Amino acid sequence: MAKELELKLKAGDPAPAFTVATNGGGRISLADYLGQNVILYFYPKDDTPGCTKEACSFRDHFAALKAKGAVVLGVSTDPVKSHDKFVEKFKLPFTLLADEDKQIVNAYGVWGEKTFMGRKYLGTNRVTFLIDPKGKIKKIWPKVKPEEHVAEVLAEL
How far apart are CA 69 and CA 14, in angstroms? Predict the structure, then answer.
């Protein structure tokens, strides 16, 4: 059993700032979203089974999330080109952040040891942060089940 990820951040902490490249060739900063709830979800890899389920679930509930005033941002260490393909293939209506230098995954403490089929490696853990309109962390989901997760987020908004 993989050891529980120990997050450095907790609810009430200021969300670490970032500026990063996005799918479609843009750049955004967390500060661009002050005044809105931000769902910042970290996932291991574009177009893999669990990540696709999670992204499609956010896509399928996007209107409801938006209606509650929330912005969805997905983060992985994949490059922009990979994000572009993922967004196009699954028609994702939200922005994906290309954290290739691992600045964001490290700042949020989601980069760490993982185990897959008995092999240990470093990677992005599936963790979601809800950031309030003032830029503070409102809630953290450290263990995400891709299929059920969006309902939990909606309930929190």
Answer: 20
- Burial code of 99-122, b = ≥16 C-beta within 10 A, e = fewer? beeeebbebbbbbbebeeeeeeee
Domain count, the chain: 1
- The helix/strand/coil state of 113 is strand
Residue 56 catalytic?
no
Q: For 122-156, what is each residue's pLDDT tens digit? A: 889 999 999 999 999 999 998 888 778 888 899 99
Task: Provide the strand spans (E) within 8-118.
Answer: 19-22, 27-29, 37-42, 70-76, 95-98, 111-116
The model's pTM? 0.91
Which tokens go with 60? 């399928």
Domain extent, residue 25, equals 19-147
Task: Supply the pLDDT for residue 4.
Answer: 54
Q: Which of 30, 38, 51, 110 is catalytic?
A: 51
Whichever domain contains 89, its CATH number is 3.40.30.10
Tokens standing for residue 157: 């908004």
pLDDT tens figures, 79-94: 999 999 999 999 999 9
